[in-house]
């Protein structure tokens, strides 16, 4: 059996794996997701540019308003003042209108990009093999689907438009600064290179810390997800305090990383603020002297100050946008790390057709190992279509691994596994798995209705077909007893149903799928006697006419199998019927007699 990495490990990633490079080209990949919305984006960008252009007119009109007020003291002609105020109101109205349009249009683009990216990422995850999920924690993957994708939302919508808008504002404001007062412009513009240099220096540090924050949050989420999904085990071992400590340690790590990022952002913000307003103070001092000397009007000084404020605000905004891009680079690295992951179960270039399999399964020298650990060794046997084969052996013998190779949850590492005389790797995965039905020991139902769970393998099945499958699985009676019948919601993982009820729903699901090859992995081992009898009867119906592999915990349930394969340490050490294996002695008879004695002792205790 393959096992998941220990949940005591501090991270879901391989500690020896190389860190993901934060390639700026990742932003181009992100922006590709905005391509379907380019029409809306262009409209939003135009609205942003118009709004930014209108804001450049405001300081000029405001300066004229000041001059119209202060340079016409004692005059009764208010015409220039009135016209300037009306022009200002018009500018404000148009700017607000285009600003609102920009806000909505770009928000629409951002929401669409995030939805598409999440669907793309989730769809890609579903194509990856069980090996990938064995090596990654579920909480880390869901964190990338939610938090990381959300982080890049602003870059694919508002940040890019704001970058264009602020660039236009900066160029326009600097041009008007120089036209208003070349001397004052030199004082103002001298600060900009210093501001940009500091932004780039600190921004690089913010990018590194932002990636660390995302990693620490993902690790905390992974710990929480495991504890919540296994809450019964946690409570049964009174390990609540252990889990609190583990999750608390993860939260603390993310908190410490967030504080480092906050300190860097605060340092950048404080430095930018001091440089901006310090420069304005010097400009105001020097400009005031020019007004006193008559070289500059009060209105021109006010106009210059507003343009200088716009330049400072634009530089600060560009710094913030730069930080957003740095954070997005960290988050997108984690996203594209998953999108670039490739399944270790390659699809054939020219798949062999497989519409309705006969069900013959052949193992020819099959070996399998996980990492450096050999699981199966040189297995060779042929199972004709329609035969019922039971797999028996001690824990860790490789029974579940063997049946997992048939639907290609894993690929053989040696030899060939064939279905209907062709290597399973010659078939498309979807075609192969459509021929295989699985009823595991721990049945997973999804948090919808009973009908939705039965129909899971055939979404187009009619209500009559769903009911027929439920009747054949001995499930119709208990389903009909619920007030909502087939519309009854089963809860997360089917928690509202008993173990026997869940198994019968799973059997109905497999019946409706109508597979040619059936795998029963200890499907009755966790049930009481009454539930086991009902489930066993349903399984007899399900097995009719299908090639069936049965892994049974209770050997008494497989006595009537056409054939029994005895596995030990990944090898077949016995092959025959129940009677033949008992007569031959060996491991099977030892296991059977040991279990028989235990059952006898259990009955004696009940009496």
From TrEMBL:
This is Subfamily B ATP-binding cassette protein MsbA. The chain crosses the membrane at residues 40-63, 84-107, 183-202, 266-287, 299-322. One of its GO terms (molecular function) is ATP hydrolysis activity. Its EC number is 3.6.3.-. It is a multi-pass membrane protein. PANTHER family: ATP-BINDING CASSETTE SUB-FAMILY B MEMBER 10, MITOCHONDRIAL, ATP-DEPENDENT PERMEASE MDL1, MITOCHONDRIAL. CDD domains: ABC_6TM_bac_exporter_ABCB8_10_like (cd18576). Residues 42-327 form the ABC transmembrane type-1 domain. Residues 361-594 form the ABC transporter domain. Residues 1-22 are annotated as: Disordered. It holds the Pfam family ABC_membrane.
């Amino acid at each position: 059996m393959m096992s998941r990495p220990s949940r005591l490990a501090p991270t879901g990633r391989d500690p020896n794996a190389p860190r993901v490079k934060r390639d700026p080209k990742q932003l181009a990949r992100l922006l590709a997701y905005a391509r379907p919305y380019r029409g809306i984006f262009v409209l939003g960008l135009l609205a942003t540019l118009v709004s930014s252009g209108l804001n450049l007119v405001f300081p000029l009109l405001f300066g004229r308003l000041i001059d119209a007020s202060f340079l016409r003291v004692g005059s009764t002609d208010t015409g220039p003042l009135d016209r300037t105020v009306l022009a200002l109101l018009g500018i404000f109205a148009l700017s607000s209108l285009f600003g609102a349009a920009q806000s909505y249009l770009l928000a629409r683009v951002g929401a669409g990009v995030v939805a598409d990216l999440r669907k793309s990422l989730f769809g890609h995850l579903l194509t990856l093999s069980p090996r990938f999920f064995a090596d990654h924690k579920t909480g880390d993957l869901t964190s990338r689907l939610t938090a990381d994708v959300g982080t890049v939302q602003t870059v694919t919508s508002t940040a890019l438009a704001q970058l264009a808008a602020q660039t236009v504002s900066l160029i326009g404001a600097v041009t008007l600064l120089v036209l208003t007062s070349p001397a004052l412009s030199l004082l103002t513009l001298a600060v900009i290179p210093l501001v940009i240099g500091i932004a780039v220096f600190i921004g690089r540090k913010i990018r590194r810390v932002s990636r660390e924050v995302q990693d620490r949050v993902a690790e905390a989420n992974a710990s929480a997800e495991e504890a919540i999904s296994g809450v019964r085990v946690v409570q049964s071992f009174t390990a609540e305090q252990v889990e609190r400590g583990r999750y608390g340690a993860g939260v603390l790590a993310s908190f410490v990383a967030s504080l480092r990022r906050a300190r860097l952002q605060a340092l950048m913000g404080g430095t930018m603020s001091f440089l901006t307003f310090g420069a304005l103070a010097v400009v105001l001092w020097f400009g005031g002297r020019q007004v006193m000397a008559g070289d500059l009007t009060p209105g021109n000084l006010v106009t210059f100050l507003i343009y200088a404020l716009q330049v400072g605000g634009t530089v600060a905004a560009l710094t913030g946008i730069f930080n957003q891009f740095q954070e997005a680079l960290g988050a997108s690295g984690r996203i594209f790390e998953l999108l670039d992951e490739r399944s270790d179960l390659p699809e054939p270039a020219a798949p062999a057709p497989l519409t309705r399999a006969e069900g013959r399964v052949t193992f020819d020298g099959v070996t399998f190992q996980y990492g450096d650990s050999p699981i199966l060794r040189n297995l060779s046997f042929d199972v004709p279509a329609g035969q019922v084969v039971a797999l028996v052996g001690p824990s860790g013998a490789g029974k579940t691994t063997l049946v997992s190779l048939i639907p290609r949850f894993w690929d053989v590492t040696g030899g060939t596994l064939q279905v209907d005389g062709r290597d399973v790797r010659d078939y498309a995965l979807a075609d192969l798995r459509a021929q295989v039905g699985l009823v595991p020991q721990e049945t997973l139902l999804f948090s919808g209705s009973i009908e939705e769970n039965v129909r899971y393998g055939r979404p187009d099945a009619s209500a009559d077909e769903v009911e027929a499958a439920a009747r054949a699985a001995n499930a119709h009676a208990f389903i009909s007893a619920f007030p909502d019948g087939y519309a009854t919601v089963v809860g997360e993982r089917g928690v509202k149903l008993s173990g026997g009820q869940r198994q019968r729903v799973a059997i109905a699901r497999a019946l409706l799928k109508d597979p040619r090859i059936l795998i029963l992995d200890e499907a009755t081992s966790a049930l009481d006697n009454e539930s086991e009898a009902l489930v066993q009867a349903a399984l007899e119906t399900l097995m009719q006419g299908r090639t069936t592999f049965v892994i049974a915990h209770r050997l008494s349930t497989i006595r009537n199998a056409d054939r029994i394969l005895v596995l030990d340490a990944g090898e077949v050490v016995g092959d025959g019927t129940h009677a033949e294996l008992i007569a031959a002695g060996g491991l099977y008879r030892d296991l059977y007699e040991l279990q028989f004695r235990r059952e006898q002792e259990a009955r004696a205790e009940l009496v």
